[in-house]
Amino acid sequence: MSMKHSLLHLLAGLFLLAGAANAVEADFSKDAPENLFEGAAVAPQGDGAISLPARLETRAFPVEASKKYRLEITAKVDGPFVVEDNERAHILTLQTHLHRLTATYQVVFLDSKGMEIKGENLRGFFLSNQRRQYTFVFCTPENAASVRVCFESNGKAAQIASFKLVEEADEGTINPNPDFRYGELSYSGWQPTRNGRLYTRPDGKTVFEAGYGGASPLFPLNESKKYRVSAVGKGGSINIQYYDKEGKMFQGRFLMRPAETGAETELTPPPGTKRGRIVMFKGVILESFKVVEAK
Amino acid sequence: MKPLTILCLLAFTTASLAAGPTVAPATGYRLSFDADGQAKGNRWVVHLRDADGNLSFEGALEGEWQQLSPEQKSYSHLFYSPSEAATLQVFSQDSGVEIQNVKLEKWEESNLLLNGDFSEPNYSGWSEHYNTEFVQSGSGKLALRVNLNGYALTDYTPVAGGGHYSFKGEHGTPGVQVLVYDSLRSFIGYADRPVQRRTFSLPEDAAYVRVLYGTGHNHLPAWRVNDISKAALVRAEGTGTAAPTKPERSRDWEIVLAAGCDPREEYAARELQRWISAITGKTPVLLAEPSKSEIRKIFVGRKLAAAFSDDLKTLEGTDGYAVRTKGGNLYLFGANPNGAIYGVNALLERNSDIIWPRPNPEFSAFYTRVPTLAFSDADFLSKPVFEERHVSGASAITAYDWESRNGLNSPWSLHKGNNYLAWLRGARLGYSGSFMAFLRKAREKDERISPMVDGKRDKSIWRQPCYTYQGTVDGLVASLRELQETLPGRETVQLHPRISDNWTVCGCADCMAPIKLPNGETLTAQTADATKYPLFFSTRNFLMLNKVAEALVPDYPDLKIRTHAYIFTAEPPAVKVHPAIIPEFAAYPTQNIRYPILAGEGKAIGGYTKDVWKRRFEEWGRVKKGDLGYFGYYYPAGFNAVADTAAADFRALADYEAVQVHTESFPLDDAELSMWDADAIEKWVMAKLMWDPAQDPEALRKEYIRRVYRGAEAEMARFYKLVRDSWNGAPESVFINCHTEPRVVFESLIIAPKLEDRAKQLLADAEGATQDPLVKKLIQRHRAYFEKLGGATGRVLVPLVEESTVEWKEPKSNHWEKGATIAGFLKVGDWRSFDNVESEHSSSVQMMRDGKNLYFRFKGNKAGAGRDQFELKLKNGKGRDFFLSVGSDGKTFAHPPLGNALQTATTTEGDGWTVVMAISLNVLGSSDPESSSIQARVGRLYGATGDQREESSHNGASIFNDHKSLWLNLQIK
């Protein structure tokens, strides 16, 4: 295994400023992992991946507040509890506290004093015995100064082959993962309830079956701005919830109903709004939900 | 028109009344005559008397339209003679009028509707009409235009029961209904919707029809008027039976009703005639003049009650009634026509055992046949405590029948046009809708009426308007003013603008500005969130509505604007509400309807305190004493005693001198089982309480049981006592409102207090006790509904099968047939949605048990080419879930792992495959130690991905949807 390039990549990524050029990026078939992770040393195996110990944390990477980033992890997990062998592994994992039935990763925000910002629940999981990319797009809270990623194996044999953290610029929306383009195992903070989950349809498109009360991840909103919101999908209703600077939901109301041909509306958040999210009721199945600034 | 026979040519004056031509009964005629010397305002009158000289009500043709005019000399009049008619007289009550050249011709056209083509340029054949006018049609012919909310009715047209008829109009059949009546002219239903030139059949007991023309949706200009230029009803030759059997005439009573009376008084008199006939088998005649015979008379209606001026004065302005006995005759009247309807009901109820317990026509009336009715209890007067007594829900005419017969006057919303039959039954007429609906026209031109929501004007109709914008007030004033004029000449239109059914309010700067209160204080809201600031936004709402009332009252001094005090406007505002505004207080949704509002037993949740409804009710009662309305929710989904609650609430309303009482939501009562099969008794008691809440609900229940459950009174009394005791005696924690699931109501009130077996036995005993087939059928419906509610709890009795210990491993063992079976799986949604769609892959599950294990046998048809697995979810006594799946390939998965506590075996044979499974009861325990039940879900996953994927389950819900209502409760005792 070659480690000659690793230091260069990681140094470039210490500060995540504007543009993908400043990404944190590690390919463990080429790069040494020492500068990426805190604590116990991990070493790549012969297949160019590192085996996940019980818990592994990355260093904290500086981020800008209220910005959108994309985390990409290539990983696999061994054993029978994978989607290839057990179709119910997916829903059971979703319904289990902290997804502990399989190996997980969590995005943790830190403030300028290095203290963890509580109340953010941005967790993903690995659930395939094939090496595949898991993508997690997230928006940083307005008091975030840095971010770290914490892995937990939860007793599973899991390997990580690559890691990349980069400012997100491709989705074209304020909210993360607006069209579920990363497949049915990459939620990016979308939280279904009851029997809700992501499904990849036979035509290859992934859709979000919300369940009753399923929600989107939080995304930044500014009280003085006007936004255009669109939803493609069917069923039920979509409410919007507004969050203040303390991260408290202070107002919620009906926003729209999705339509298969696309539904659109505009909104200007009420005073005090810093972030928002949508909550869905009565059988919403979303193909996309997009929030952009209105011109 | 082609009259065939000229019968006579005579000259009449007022002096020649006695000598009229003879007429045949039940025959169509065309009468024509000349009149000289008339002054404007005089009418001609046609009287068709029987052989004894009696004038039946149908024989007195004294329509308002029969106007003589100085400018006109010749007149014509088409009519059907009554069934007993023998002679005809035509005259004017003005002695100066000379009637001559009288010609009477038989009308023998194939079109049975008199003057259906308006070849006679008058209302003959269309005697009853409202808000209509004659116009020239496009083809230049005369047409009758029905204006907004108007109607035009053809006269009673004799038909043959069971006959086939076709209807023909010039422009199709919009806004047309064919009303079918029996031989007593009691409405018995609608004919199939008349479709142009298509034959429809009439019921066997049909004797008359009337064709009713109305108007439709008032927001669609095309439906606001209905022009009639041709209406024809033709009988298919050879169809229909002969004329109906003549009812036996009563020698005890005759009913007298003033010719030309209000149609509602006629309806009341016909109801009286109908029920006397049903109870005694003898029919009192309906006369326009009392006969000279000794037969006792019942005079119906205000016009004939002039001798009772004190009573009329007492009743003025109410729906009340009086029945008085004088000289052996009875006088039944109200100050308004509805009073006669309610008076008839009261007279019959007090002098027979008749009851109208349900809207369902099959159970609409119960009574004992007796040879005579003495009407000895015939000296009383009653006024309702509440001016308006409303039930909302089903709008079928059967619902209005029931309501009318039990003292209610629920309104009909005119936005779809008038409802003649509902109005005839006492319904108030008006408009009800959200402010935004009333503001429809104004909103089209002015977006500022729409609220500012999240920084933009939200044009959804489901919002509240901007409360502070003057355009909102002006738009509402204009709308209410226009609608107020849409029932010309009739009672005041009821106007009911209200908030939309949500919390979203306008957040514009003006609406959010602090409100200066009359006491100098200031009311503020930090955000446009009515959940947090109900007082602020309720105040905004009523400030706006106050302005509307202030603008209208100078022109409409009697105006009352009804509105909801509901959601955030349930909070009494911090300003005085205009006297013309009637807020309908709604204690929703956290009030526990097992308790009266003033008991303060609501659910403390969110921003609601336990006693919030008590506080608000008391406050509304104080500030709107004499002007308060009420919107109730007395419809729990199961057997209940909610009338106990309603009685207390209605009494409180009476103390507040409320003008209106209401409950939502009585469903349609028809052949399908419905809540009427659980609590018709409560609904009837509440209707009675709406007239007089001082009555004892338990005494009313006893009355209901006595009148309805003939032969099974004791058993049904015990059954209802069981229900009532449970309703009132359940622990305080049992919260029930109108949205509480049927399953929960049943579990809380029947299963938890262990009443199920006893209740079922009492119903079974009741069915056995009665010999009355109708009562038996009614109780059978109670039993069926009881079972249905019990089934909604998801209970499945898993039998103890001794042989199961050994036999479970054998999938073909006959002992599996002793087990409980679940089949008929339904598709579960994934990226697709399904609603009660049967699975394409048939599946079934059998369950049995011994002392140690619970056994399952899953059977499926052809195994899926890819993955195909049966799935089971179980919840143990500690609420812990177990998920098990067994594939057609035998692969077993359990989460959490069950080790030796789980055994499975899979076999495939032919097109099917089977899994048998044993699960240790020790592992599962019981979900509920009291009932020894285990909660379970069963399902199947066929093909994991792609189009072939199909998930199915016993109830069509994913087994991963954990909602408590979706579980089966396996009974293992």
Describe the secondary structure blueprint for this structure:
The complex is a heterodimer of chains A (295) and B (973).
Chain A: H1 6-12, E1 24-27, E2 50-51, E3 55-57, E4 61-62, E5 68-77, H2 89-94, E6 104-110, E7 123-125, E8 132-139, E9 146-152, E10 158-167, E11 197-200, E12 206-209, E13 219-220, E14 227-234, E15 237-243, E16 249-256, E17 263-267, E18 275-281, E19 285-293
Antiparallel strand pairs in A: 1-10, 2-10, 3-9, 4-9, 5-8, 5-10, 6-7, 6-9, 11-12, 12-19, 13-18, 14-17, 14-19, 15-16, 15-18
Chain B: E1 5-13, E2 28-36, E3 44-49, E4 55-61, E5 74-80, E6 87-92, E7 98-106, E8 128-136, E9 142-153, E10 157-158, E11 164-169, E12 176-181, E13 187-190, E14 199-201, E15 208-213, E16 226-228, E17 231-235, E18 253-257, H1 263-280, E19 286-287, E20 296-300, H2 309-315, E21 321-326, E22 329-333, H3 337-351, E23 380-382, E24 388-393, H4 397-405, E25 412-413, H5 420-424, E26 429-434, H6 435-438, H7 440-445, E27 452-453, E28 456-457, H8 470-484, E29 494-498, H9 509-512, E30 515-516, E31 522-523, H10 534-552, E32 561-565, E33 581-585, H11 612-623, E34 629-630, H12 642-655, E35 660-666, H13 676-691, H14 697-708, H15 713-729, H16 742-751, H17 756-769, H18 773-791, E36 795-797, H19 804-807, E37 820-823, E38 826-828, E39 843-849, E40 853-860, E41 868-875, E42 881-887, E43 892-895, E44 902-909, E45 912-920, H20 921-924, E46 933-942, E47 950-953, E48 968-971
Parallel strand pairs in B: 18-19, 18-20, 20-22, 24-35, 25-26, 26-29, 32-33, 33-34, 36-48
Antiparallel strand pairs in B: 1-7, 2-5, 2-7, 3-4, 3-6, 8-9, 9-15, 9-16, 10-15, 11-14, 11-17, 12-13, 12-15, 21-22, 21-23, 27-28, 30-31, 37-39, 38-47, 39-40, 40-45, 41-42, 41-46, 42-43, 44-45, 46-47, 46-48
Helix pairs in contact in B: 1-3, 8-10, 12-13, 13-14, 15-17, 17-18
Largest sheet of chain A: 5 strands, antiparallel
The mean pLDDT of chain B is 92
Helix content of chain A: under 10%
User: Radius of gyration of chain A, rounded?
Assistant: 19 Å
Element-level helix/strand string of chain A? HEEEEEHEEEEEEEEEEEEEE
State the largest interface. Answer: A-B, 35 and 35 residues
Low-confidence spans of chain A: 1-21
Report the count of strand segments of chain B. Answer: 48
CA-atom Rg of chain B in angstroms: 34 Å
Question: Main beta sheet of chain B, described?
Answer: 8 strands, mixed
How many runs of DSSP E, i.e. beta strands of chain A?
Answer: 19
Proportion of residues in helical segments of chain B: 10-25%
Q: Helix count of chain B, per DSSP?
A: 20
* Beta-strand share of residues of chain B: 25-35%
Per DSSP, the total helix count of chain A is 2
